[in-house]
Design a protein that fits this description.
This protein has about 280 residues and is mainly alpha-helical. About 55% of the residues lie in helices and about 0% in strands.
Length: about 280
């Protein structure tokens, strides 16, 4: 082993960036890394902020991929659509793993700065709401926390005005299994299980070889919801572990509210048909 320090520049690595774009320049790290502003002196508040900021970044990517997947589905570009849906599932897996880091924060740690949060809460995340709307869990009441930011509310309203990703999957399902008009999209209400949709998915699952593309679509959607459910479940257990059954900072009933959300089914027909096979 040489006693001298290795210089990557001797192997061709660029070492001077006065007139060139660096890693930090490309990622705008000078701005990104200065957006964490703890209000208290509590050690764990920085963890809490970074946990939620990084989750919002992953949700931004999930929205980007889901919108592209929906466009690809409408245009019949199934191979790219499948890749995008697979990526969304992995994004939710990444979001799920983040709870493991937050769970290192104890009740005493959180209590030290919880009051500084005021009425702010993850319940008010407009990106999370948009994800739910894209996937078909459409509750117009959830627009209310965003009324004070017109641009955000307009974006959510625009999503409610168009068919969800699952609505477009149902259109594709009916067209590829004999045609006929699919049930009308439930634009401003949460998607409810429909026997006509379930019967079409049953055709697919009982004849996989004939309907392989639809079968793959169904399984990609189930995979996505599987990871989404795990994310929600870990959210519940993390909150209960840290604050028990206290009310949420945003005024919800906390754990009780989150447990109610566990009952939501995004693509119910794909889950219910399994009992009929």
């Amino acid at each position: 082993m040489s006693g001298s320090a290795y210089d990557p520049g001797t192997d061709g690595a660029k070492m001077q960036f006065k007139d060139a774009m660096s890693y930090g320049d490309y990622l705008h790290l000078d701005g990104l890394l200065t957006k964490q502003h703890p209000i208290s002196a509590a050690h764990d508040e920085l963890l809490f902020i970074i946990q939620h900021q990084t989750s919002e970044l992953w949700m931004k990517l999930a929205i980007h991929e889901m919108n592209a997947a929906r466009d690809a589905l409408i245009s019949g570009d199934m191979s790219h659509m499948f890749k995008m849906l697979a990526r969304v599932s992995r994004i939710f897996e990444q979001l799920n793993s983040a709870w493991d880091v937050l769970r290192t924060m104890t009740p005493a740690d959180y209590t030290a700065f919880r009051e500084t949060l005021g009425p702010s809460s993850g319940f008010q995340s407009h990106q999370y709401r948009l994800i739910e709307y894209i996937l078909g869990n459409r509750n117009p009441n959830m627009l209310k926390p965003h009324a004070h930011v017109p641009d955000l509310q307009a974006g959510l309203e625009a999503e409610l005005a168009r068919p969800s990703l699952y609505d477009e999957a149902v259109v594709f399902l009916f067209a590829a299994t004999g045609g006929g008009a699919p049930p009308a999209p439930q634009l401003r209400t949460p998607h409810a299980a429909d026997p006509a949709i379930q019967s079409r998915w049953k055709l697919v699952y009982e004849d996989v070889d004939t309907y392989w593309t639809l079968y793959e679509l169904g399984e990609k959607l189930v995979d996505l919801e599987d990871y989404f459910r795990r994310w929600r479940f870990n959210h519940v257990t993390t909150v209960e572990r840290i604050i028990g059954f206290k009310r949420g900072t945003g005024g919800t009933s906390g754990v009780s509210y989150l447990r109610r959300m566990l009952e939501v089914e995004l693509f119910p027909e794909l889950w219910h048909l399994r009992g009929e096979l």
